[in-house]
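Sample entry (210 residues):
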Amino acid sequence: MNTDRPKDFLETPAKIIGIAFHPLLMPVYGMIIIFSAPTLYGYLPFNVKKLLLLIMLVNNVLLPFSLLPFFYQRKIITSWTLNERKERVIPMIITTILYGTTSYIVFKFPIPLFFKSFIFSTAFLSLLVTLINLRWKISLHSAGAGALVGLVLTLSFKMLTPLDWYLISTIIAAGLVLASRMKLNLHNPQQVWIGLLTGFAGFSFFMMLF
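Predicted structure, serialized as tokens:
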């Protein structure tokens, strides 16, 4: 009994971290970072911020989550957490298409190019991890965490503004995500580290192109 308590105690916060930093939520957190950071983009009109956030929430959070019961009923997936690599394929393809749709919608908006590049980079990263997942199981949570770190560094570099606390916060969050995925035995160290590096490098590279 005594040996089980530490394990249970650590698994509960690991599950909470997994939910709080779900891959579908990471772009929303990224948008909040852009809106709240002390840069020029933080002073956009509130209505513009609200509209962009609403589009992201509906297209890339609510719609993918709402499709899970359908996938489960059709036996496309056997669990809500999509732990099996093969079960991820169809949901990830649909998620990538939805990110592409969001990119198309946002492209027409008269907003700073940085926001458009953020959405495009999210769609690119989604496509990249989907292609990797076809052959090898990569940690999507870690990829999302790496992308957040890349976003903060890119934003700081392009705006010539130190964002130390944002960077520290995203690095700590990334560490918690990696530790939680391994604690729950959902990924091995190679999968979480490659996920982190893929998210960071893929997202940052695409954003720096604009």
